[in-house]
Amino acid sequence: MYQDWAAKYDIFPSSNSSSPAAGTTQRSQLQSGHETNINFLRKLGYEAYTIGWTAILKAELEASRLLLDEEHELLPPGEKDGNNYILGRMGLHNIVIAFPGPHADASAAELMENMLQTFRNIRFGLLVGVGGAAPSLPNLEDVSKDIRLGDVVVSDPNGAHGKCSSNELQ
């Protein structure tokens, strides 16, 4: 089921007939169709990834994947982890991008919860998206509590519960 969806959107890197080095997978094309030089994907362990990114929509997944400086080879799925992942590097940081399968109805919180069970060294979690779930009714008494397009919403965990605050870009 997932493989059909992944093949349709070219989620898995394509293979070439030449032999890659041990522990690497060959890739010749990004999901977006941009041609790249043939390179080899590094394989890192679960512990190497410190930033988790959730992508609920296909557009968010494509954008996040294109922002990677380097993609890494996929790891076997974790026990009881229904997430799908793209692994890679941005600058000096190893990133895990989690996304639901084609028929999954997972929330960002569920994706992150599963990710944290599989990738135990995640220190920062990102949900970068179009803000489809953000409140849309304006707060006329206090405009600082109104979320608008272009705003950045930051979660500051407090014990067992997350706390969000809005920071408008200037």
Average pLDDT metric: 73
User: Low-confidence stretches at least 5 residues in length (pLDDT < 50)?
Assistant: 1-6, 11-38, 165-170
Structural class: alpha/beta
As a percent range, the share of strand residues is: 25-35%
Between the first and last Cα atoms, what is the distance in angstroms?
Answer: 44 Å
Number of beta strands = 9
Q: Mind telling me the C-alpha Rg?
A: 18 Å
Order of helices and strands: HEEEHEEEHEEE
Taking the sheet with the most strands, its summary is: 5 strands, mixed
* Count of the domains: 1
Helix content: 10-25%
Q: What gross morphology would you assign?
A: globular
Number of helices: 3
In which order are the strands of the major sheet placed? 4-5-6-3-7
